[in-house]
Design a protein that fits this description.
It is a multi-pass membrane protein. Helices cover 80% and strands 0% of the residues. It is mostly helical and 117 residues long. It has one domain. The N and C termini lie close together (8 Å).
């Protein structure tokens, strides 16, 4: 994969994670999602910001797929899982058991291995 594709993949991952964190923050603030608060949920600034970040990430993903083999880009995107574990710990105070850290590292190693050309 080219340097441009790697940089755009990194940007895509950041946008996906920002979107998910914004959505989680707002859902926590609202007490979670229930069908009876659907309208309040989908019009909430944090949810809308999260959806915007996810949408922008999708547009960047279009470019990544235009530059890189799918069999490399898609597995490499899974490196976001380990970062997601870290963000859950940092931003939401989640307790992360050792096995989850190990699993995240195994996923990262697998993403690296499939990206080696």
């Amino acid at each position: 994969m080219s340097l441009q594709a790697w940089l755009l993949l990194g940007l895509n991952i950041i946008m996906l994670l920002v979107g998910q964190v914004l959505i989680k923050w707002d859902l926590d603030r609202m007490g979670g999602f229930q069908w009876n608060n659907l309208l309040a949920t989908v019009t909430s600034p944090g949810i809308l910001g999260g959806v915007l970040a996810l949408t922008a990430g999708l547009v960047v993903w279009f470019r990544v797929l235009s530059l890189a083999p799918f069999s490399v880009a898609y597995p490499a995107q899974s490196s976001s899982y380990l970062i997601g574990i870290i963000l859950g710990w940092l931003f939401f105070g989640e307790s992360i058991p050792t096995i989850r850290w190990v699993g995240g590292l195994v996923i990262l190693l697998g993403a690296y291995l499939v990206s080696v050309e």
